[in-house]
Amino acid sequence: MSMVARKVNLLGFAEHRDEGERMLAAPGDAVVIQRGALRSVLMRCPDGCGETLVVNLDPRVGKSWRLDMRTDKPTLYPSVWRDGGCGSHFIIWRGQLLWCDRFEEGNVEPNFDLVALGRRVLKSLRRRELRSAEEIAADLDEITWEVSRAGQMLVRRKLALCGSGRQRDWFALA
Ligand SMILES: [Zn+2]
């Protein structure tokens, strides 16, 4: 399994899917499809199975992901989960590809200033009202994965509380 990708290799932009598809070669290769608006991310499946994944970015045509391109590195939110076939499930965060189940052992999280972000997240929390990491990230113009990590750090330090189950990434002041 030496072909498993740990990073996304963003090759550029294309207007149409067939054009983008021709650019993909290795696992983790990706192309953003943009015609006016952002349409999708095409990606050669990072587990090496050879399939092409299509991640929708257009909220007008159903369930969509958010693409963040700060520092020229792609972040997608939420995680990408292939229902059929190989079942790949992973996170894309500042160009790093973090596996959610298989291959998780070699995950490498990107660097960011957890302490500084923790201070800003703490200021945005309310008492007795859980707020989602996604909502806090939108308010602060930050990456949701990083707000989630900062929230978890505040919980460990007993400065914040988090929800459970589906609201595990929701936070309130302790
Ligand atoms: Zn696959």
From TrEMBL:
Pfam families: BubE. It comes from the Bacteria. This is DUF2285 domain-containing protein. It comes from Bradyrhizobium ottawaense.
